[in-house]
Amino acid sequence: MREANITVSEAGFEAMGLEKLISLGREAGIRDFEELACHGTGAVIQVTVASRYDEAALSTLECVDQWEHVTETDDGHLYVIAFTAPALPDSLAAKTDDLVGTCDPQLNDRSATMSLVGSQESISGTIRAYEAAGISPDLLKLGPYEGRERPIDSLTDRQQQVIQTAFDMGYYDVPRAASTDEIAAELDLDASTVAEHLQRAERNVLGRLLE
């Protein structure tokens, strides 16, 4: 198992067609950012911002599939945004599916960083797919994966939360005692998001166990 730490620059956001979405978030004052689901050419993200987005502008962006202002908290305004980068090819999604996971992407002032975890071949294939699409991520580090040892620790925090809730509610009982809709209601998530988290979590855990 290998891990690569990469950075995508402002020019990379522009090449993907995401620069306006990033700009709107910065204008609203991003306080917290979490990836809920990833599909290679896009993602579902949860964002807390200091003030509300320019929602009229958000609705007009080509890259935004859907968005929701979830609530206002003491920390600011919580949004869930689903987006697809219009300039990324579908072949990139196929490459990222070979990864065990992308770990805790972080959005910085002028760039985004993430860890790609998987085989050397899957990491190299993902980076080549980015380069073929005109994005040149900076490779900060490549080496053995030094993450936590338990298979479940290879999951993102959100994947762990969803799979633990599913287990506690009886989703894996025989016969099954809970549905994805019921898990989604418990976590206040969309059922399709829960289903994707479960599928990726199960694949990642099995991948670690069957290595």
TrEMBL record:
Keyword Transcription: yes
Family matches, as InterPro entries: HTH_bacterioopsin (IPR007050), WH-like_DNA-bd_sf (IPR036388)
Highest rank taxon of the organism: Archaea
Organism of provenance: Natronosalvus hydrolyticus
Transferase as UniProt keyword: no
Gene3D superfamilies noted in UniProt: Winged helix-like DNA-binding domain superfamily/Winged helix DNA-binding domain
Protein name: Helix-turn-helix domain-containing protein
Signal peptide start and end residues: none
The entry's keywords: Transcription, Transcription regulation
HTH bat-type domain mapped to chain residues: 155-206
